[in-house]
Amino acid sequence: MKQTHKVVMLPTEKASKIFIKDGILKDSFGYRNICVKSDGYLPQHIHILSDDEIKEGDWYIAFNVDGEEMELRNSIKHLVKGLDRKVIATTDKSLSILIAGGTDGNAGMWEIYPKLQESFIKAYIKAYNEGNPITEVEVEYETLYKNKKGLQPFPDEKCEEHIQQLKLNSDNTIIIHSKEEKMYSREDLYMSASFVVDQIAANRGNSDWNMKTTPKMIVDKWIKENL
Question: Which of 27-36, 119-128, 183-192, 199-208 has the highest average model confidence (pLDDT)?
Answer without folding.
Answer: 119-128
